[in-house]
Amino acid sequence: MQVIREYVFSSLRRNKYTSAAILAALFLMTTLLSSFCAMVYTMWADDVFLNKWYDGDWHGELFDNSYGRDLEKIENYASVSAVMIKGSWEVAKVSDSGRRRYIIQRPATEEYWNSMPEQHSILEGRLPETDSELVLSKQYFEDHPDAKLGDTLTLPVGERIYNGEVCMETDIWREGETFRQTGTKTYTLVGIMDAATSSAVPAYSGMSYMSRESIEPEDSITVYLRFDPMRSTYRELPALAESIGYEKDEYGDYLLRYNTRLLADYFIVPPEQTFSIEMLAVPLMFLVFAMLIVGVFVLIIHNAFALSLNEKTAQFGTLACVGASPKQILSAAVSEALILVIPVLPFGLAAGWFVNIQLFANINAHNDIGRSAPDILPVFGLPSVLPALLLSLLTACLSARIPAKKLARALPIEIIKQEEAIRQSSKKKRRNGQRRLSRLKGHIRRPSRAPSASPLGGIIGELSANSLAQRKHSYRAAVLSLCMSFLLLTTFLYGFTINDASNTILREQSLQDEHIQISISDGREPDPEFLEDLVQVPDIGQAAVYNNLTCAVWVSAEDASPDIQERFGGFDGVISKNKYSLIKRDGRYRMRTALIGLEEHCFREYCGRLGIDPDPYLADPGQALVYNYTRDPEASTRRHPVNCGLLDLEQGQTLDFTEHAYDEDTGDYTFSLKVGDLVDALPCASLYKASHFTLTAVMPLQHVLDISAFCSEKRHYSAQNLNGNFLVSGEGVLSDSKIEKVSRQMEHIVSYYYGSGDYVFTDVIDHKKMTADMKESWNLIIAFLTAFLAVIGLSNVWAAISGNLRQRSREFAMLKSVGLSNRQLKDMLFLEGVTLGLKPLLWSLPFQIIFVSVFLRLSEVTLIEYLPFAPLGIILGYTALILLAVLGAYLIGIRRIRKENIITTIKNDTL
After folding, report:
1. pLDDT in tens, 43-76
2. Cα torsion for 201, 205, 209, 210, to the nearest 10°?
3. Contacts with 41 (C-beta within 8 Å, 6 or more apart), sequence order
4. Fewer CB atoms < 10 Å away: N or C end of the chain?
5. Number of CB atoms found within 10 A of residue 616's CB
6. Are 196 and 137 in contact (CB under 8 A)?
């Protein structure tokens, strides 16, 4: 073994040019793998960072009432690694009149400030460090221009009182409300928060600091937790809730909350979530892409190792004769690969890291829409280095093992005979070549002034075909590597463009009647003048301005529709899945309902679309249109929802409703509605997103407000919130400028009637800008990978063609000696180049068709819908680039061949 190891080192020193070629290929391979792994790791790390930035670094929340006396059990719980605590609200009075009379603030511990998103909302100043320091909403500084950081406020603190009872600190303002002072507190303003409070709440919001020791046993607190290990979150949080005395709700669950997006980043999903192949789509795509990269470089590098081993065939045969086993020969070849790849690894990893930095620098330069978090930070930790190292070593070992395994299987005498056969074959080929040239001499005419024959047929075409057939083995590795590179590129492009097509089509469907969206919450009934101004904006083609009153109906098993009976086995079958809001009590079933109140103009328009007379419904507050369907959660897909009937209803039937939709609801108002027309469409697409098995009734807006007036304060307040979805009218293709114009007009009206914290206004143009920005970032990644793959594949085939043409110098000299003109030689090589250049496209075409067909089916996108997104231009451009590179290699070779002297070339080759 020592002899073989010494021989490996000696052969590497002697074959410097072969070793240099292998080193260059290994460097490119390591660079690409390093860059790819770093890119994937950076994308994952950025997603984790964004989730922590916007939602906080926590795993689970005890959402029910928790108290200071529970803290010791929580902190000492075995799997809890960190506890973030937010205290109860504190009210301070700042004014006796005006829209905002109070400051409501919550203290938080240091761990909370360091882990939660509120730390990023500080626009100016710093975080509070003592219980007397306060960060306040920007609204306070807007309403008090003289206030500045560093000011001290000495204010009365106490309780809000209404009808002799203590109100919640965050309740809306009620006429007749008073303030009961319990003390005085001095605050120092240290920060301005980017926060806004609805004008329905008569207060400015803020936050302060509290120490763990200051929490009293009876203090009400909100607790966020991190677990170690994180994977135990879905198991440990319910167990912790049980240990501190939480009670389960009507569905048998504790009132808990999970940071699902952060947990999903670590592949931690709720135990009740059913497996879907879509969950593995992105990881599988990156895994397949990594395997294709390895496959491409194995094909590229193994050709260089094969040439190196062929040069040492006799030596390995001699070593085998003196006792070297096949395993030792195989080990020697793999050792050569490892000796070459190990020095390259640091440089390749560093080059990949540098490329990754430049890539994300370009992305950050274009990523300025819809991202308030800091720029993407390229990361290069062990999760990216280790896969790059392992894949690089795997590629190098496989590249050397493939040709070495064939050599190791041969017997010693066979290896020596093979070397001798190669020499004899070379002499035989020269003799055969001379005979063929003699036969061809009679067929090839001397050049004349007449135009030459077409290069697509005749003796030139035959020579080109024979040449490629004879050298298919020498071109095989180069062509296969180019095909793999081409397939890798097209697979990557198809994957991203199909995903883009699916998301774009779904987004366009969801925004068909939602060019503009408004959400208003100010604790007051909508102003009729505001509603009139809003729906009368010019160029509004369709509008849905509505409120929503959540209620419930109690039904019997016999009330289930035939669809429910057939698909789920009745209401009991739905409940058995333990995923939906339907609940059984005393033999009856509580079904959630939504009363949708449409503004009068919108209600008339909605009834007109359905061919229903709206006047009876406007005149009678005791009847409603009923949408008696739900989306079948098992049969529906993202693009193709399947409706399922809910109740066995008839027009004119009476339904009894209750506001007590959840066990924790305090109101018990009941009312009856007569079922009017059973409709098959809702006023706007967003209403279809209601939770499964929810019955929907549509009424005029004022009727729903009148019903809510008898409900509990909480339910009445929620019914006063408004939502609006608007479709801009237009003939032909609707321009973005027109939508922007209408959007500005509507936003001006909304801002006139409501304050900045009372509404949220969005339009489709904002979505388009964000989507375009994200797409531009992805295009940069695609362009980077495309360029890298093009350089690798084309440089490999260029080197293979150039080397092959140099080896064929004697052949070309002999063809010229028997009368082949330079034009005919050029036509012959042109045909070779075109045939060779089109092979990647033709050979990979079946795989491309299979890949596209499967992914289009999984994404629910038809071929016609996908064509506008298909990367045909890039693929055709890359095909043209391959042809140009191949033909360029042949063109350079032809120029060299023209300059060579026939006699000298034949003489040198013979010698």
Report:
1. 899 999 999 999 999 999 998 888 999 999 999 9
2. 0
3. 379, 380, 381, 383, 384
4. C
5. 12
6. yes
The per-residue pLDDT for 133 is 95
Task: Tally helices (H) and strands (E) across the chain.
Answer: 28, 24
End-to-end CA distance of the chain: 38
The token pair at 792 is: 């690798």
Distance CA 177, CA 173 (A): 7
Report pLDDT digits (tens) over 867-880: 888 888 888 887 88
DSSP string, 669-713: -EEEEEEEEEES--SSGGGGGSPSS-EEEEEEHHHHHHHHTTS-H
Residue 60 backbone phi and psi in degrees, to 5: -150, 155
Comparing CA positions, the residue from 718, 716, 764 lying closest to residue 739 is: 764
C-alpha–C-alpha distance, residues 503 and 495, integer Å: 12
Cβ atoms of residues 828 and 467 within 8 Å: yes
Mean pLDDT of 566-582: 87
CA 239 from centroid of its chain's CA atoms:
33
The whole-angstrom separation of Cα 251 and Cα 244 is 20
Alpha-carbon gap, residue 559 to 584, rounded angstroms? 14
- Token couple for 630: 């739900």
Q: In this structure, which amino acid lies at residue 903? A: I
Contact 724, 548 (CB under 8 A): no
Question: Please, which residues have CB within 8 angstroms of residue 745's CB and are 6 or more apart in sequence?
Answer: 537, 538
Identify the three-state secondary structure at position 759: strand
Q: Determine the Cα angle at 884 with ends 879 and 886, to 5°.
A: 95
Q: Which residue has the tokens 């495309």?
A: 786
CA angle, 900 as apex, 899 and 906 as ends, to 5°? 165
- Give the model confidence (pLDDT) of 626-635 as tens digits: 999 998 888 8
Helix ranges, 596-644 (H): 600-610, 615-619
The two tokens of residue 452 are 């030459």
pTM (predicted TM-score): 0.70
Q: What is d(CA 743, CA 590) in angstroms, rounded to the nearest whole number?
A: 41
Most confidently modeled range among 97-101, 309-313, 437-441: 97-101
Give the integer Cα–Cα distance in Å for 187 and 134: 6
User: What is the arithmetic mean of pLDDT over 365-374?
Assistant: 68
The residues that bridge with 589 in the sheet, in sequence order, are: 555, 584
- What does DSSP say about strands 102-108 and 90-93: parallel, antiparallel, or unpaired? antiparallel
The tokens describing 35, both together, are: 């860059």
Question: Whose structure tokens read 């080990």?
Answer: 331
Asked if residue 380 lies in contact with residue 356, where contact means CB atoms within 8 angstroms, the answer is: yes
> 545: closest CA among 683, 448, 676, 425?
683
Helix, strand, coil percentages, rounded to 5, for the chain = 55, 20, 25
Strands 152-162 and 178-193, bridge-based pairing: antiparallel
Structure token digits, residue 128:
């509070």
Q: What is the pLDDT of residue 82?
A: 94
The tens digit of pLDDT for each residue in 175-226 reads 888 999 999 999 999 999 988 888 778 899 999 999 999 999 999 999 999 9
Helices 313-321, 412-441: axis angle to 10 degrees equals 150
- Determine how many CB atoms are found less than 10 A away from the CB of residue 137: 25
For residue 121, what is the DSSP state?
Answer: G
Alpha helices in 545-599 (DSSP H): 562-568, 571-576
DSSP annotation of 867: G
Residue at 502: amino acid letter: S
Per DSSP, the residues of 172-185 read PP-TT-EEEEEEEE
Q: Coil, strand or helix: which one is 120?
A: helix
Closest CA to 553 of 681, 672, 666, 653: 672
* Calpha distance 455→470 (Å, rounded): 20
CA 114 to chain centre: 28
Token pair for residue 234? Answer: 């879905």
- Which ranges in 454-521 belong to alpha helices (H)? 458-470, 472-510
